[in-house]
Task: structure prediction
Amino acid sequence: MADVERQDAVTMDKIVSLCRRRGFVFPASEIYGGLGSSYDYGHYGVLLKENVKARWLEAMVREREDVVALDSSIILHPKVWEASGHVSGFTDPLVDCRFCKRRYRADHLDASQCGQRPSKRPGETEQCDLTSPRQFNLMFETRVGAVEETGQQVFLRPETAQGIFINFKNVAQLARRKPPFGIAQVGKSFRNEITPGNFIFRTLEFEQMEMEYFVPPDEAAEWFRYWVDERLAWHVRYGVRESHLRVRPHGADELSHYSSETSDIEYLYPMGWSELEGVANRGAFDLTAHSEASGTKLEWVDAGTGERFVPHVIEPALGLNRSLLTFLIDAYDEEVVGERERTVLRLHPGLAPVKAAVLPLIGKSEDMVSKARALYDELRRVAMVEYDDSGAIGRRYRRQDEIGTPYALTVDEQTLADGTVTIRERDSLAQERLPLEGVRAALLDRLSQPWKNPKA
Ligand code: ATP
Result:
């Protein structure tokens, strides 16, 4: 990871602290001292995660005619992972320090910290005593069966893709699809990462959003380029600044065992450029391997012409949690308004956990409260909205800014007189008055308008 100077106000510490303060994400098992690189998602974290997932499914499935959805098991037959090459090849090079007993990824040494001296890299102090690298398999093992000794050894899946490949025949037949077509899946994956870290960037369990796109072999290179462009455009569509995104093709020495071509879509994180999403040309590797190992032919046969071939596969694979982190980092902003500093998440309205807040100006005014609650009850039927009547109005606005709520609706004295409310826009801070009966339509209309990141 390159050392890059950033102009932005954002740092990983600020994101971690905002996530904690506002209940997006907090360390898992905290009352027991926490478990490294495991995190729990609170109310706003769950809502944001659900929105990222929904926008991905919309773009990959709903807006297309050539991709269908799947939800396969996390625990698969152990032979799946032998055939896929994960048992023998899903490894990272591991280095131990005999002195401090820490473990590092041999290919990440220059981004790791020495256990004794935080300012040094492993191997840089006199006491450091590193072993030579050995391969460490990243799959978590467990057992199926009541009796430990005789139970069958199985793995928690390290990627969702294999569940798609082994269902190729089912889906191709039942969904009556002809290549090119895709199968999309969102679900948990597990990796026993050696050097996890950087908050939720790399964790032991995470959710992946993967799509396997099956194509005629001679079209694979073209579809690979298509999917790199499509996926890049998706991140931009939901607000990630183009200046902070780049596509990096893998060198021959980096390619996974299954891939003939891979490009990473990278984002400029506070710690430098790193992978956000990977797009791989997996060729016929997986379908061929599972056909041979299972004895079930996974190929495309045209019922009319009898033509048959093993489709090649293009795979865009995105971490849901890493995507959420990227949106948070890119949206984070600080500014001074009227001598007051505010922190604001400039999230795309389609991602924002809460779409609008309904606020009676004076929380103790029964008239304002009853009007505000009536508006809240009306809006909550069509959107995620929040009601808040406690504390000074400025503090309530700032709280909503920090969780990225695009609109605040305030019920005040004038509402009681003429039936209008103020709508305040998060980014521009522009305020307008709307008649109460028109708020619902106006809000839905504004939320569906094209949005441009004001930071871009
Ligand atoms: P890395 O090089 O960062 O370890 P990878 O190349 O092994 O990642 P892939 O196997 O291509 O990752 O997985 C696809 C996507 O899943 C990644 O681009 C990332 O968004 C996400 N991902 C992978 N591992 C993790 C993890 N441990 N925690 C969170 N997200 C992950």
